Amino acid sequence: MVSNSLSHPLDHPVWHSLSTGWSALAQGDARARRIDPLYGPFAAAADDSADSRAALAALVPDAGELWLVGPDAVTPPPGVTVLRTATLAQMVAPSITPASSAPPAWVTLDESDAANMRALALLTRPGPFAPLTHRLGRFIGVRDKGQLIAMAGERMAMPGFTEVSGVCTHPDWRGRGLAGALMRIVAQAMLDRGDTPCLHAYAAHDRTIALYRTLGFNVRAELPMMVVTL
Description:
- It comes from Sphingobium psychrophilum.
- The protein is α+β, with helices and mostly antiparallel strands.
- 22% of the residues lie in helices and 32% in strands.
- It has two domains: 13-88, no CATH class; 91-220, Gcn5-related N-acetyltransferase (GNAT) (Aminopeptidase, 3-Layer(aba) Sandwich).
- The chain has helices spanning 13-19, 50-57, 114-124, 178-192, 206-215; strands at 26-28, 32-35, 43-45, 66-69, 81-92, 107-108, 140-144, 147-158, 161-169, 196-202, 218-229.
């Protein structure tokens, strides 16, 4: 279903994250904000006014991108170049389905794993993963002979909701259920602390969405996504 209202924080997830859970990392003002580029490329405007849209355009880096999700991605901010667009399926999980087998041996990842986390993300491209994205929340992973082969963690954060993100598996270890197992652990921890897990997947990726449904996620809305540069 497609949400037609901005009354819910997930209708405008980047803005609400930048105003709450990401506020310490936000750059900009009350009209438009972006996260510190070292943490990611996401930005949002407070509303659709000409003043806010101009402020959003001013946040585009000289040699980089902004990723816009939801109402900000309907019409490009003035003076920017659109690199790509897509439709995202926004999914939420009020509960997580039990696993049919024991989870793999996993560890909580920390600063010493940062280089390996980013290398895995750049190899598999689960979404934007900047040099400090790993600091946005808790990440867990699976190692094989010391090599990080799968991980999952947290990204957008706002009262009552936390986004499951950074989910990826090295190509040589796919097909073993590692991604789903790690997502279950990450999402259940969110539920245990009183948050509802959410995530964003490309709406055209039917197999990915089908996997997330088996974990307990359901599509809440479809949101536009737009990547812009100068």
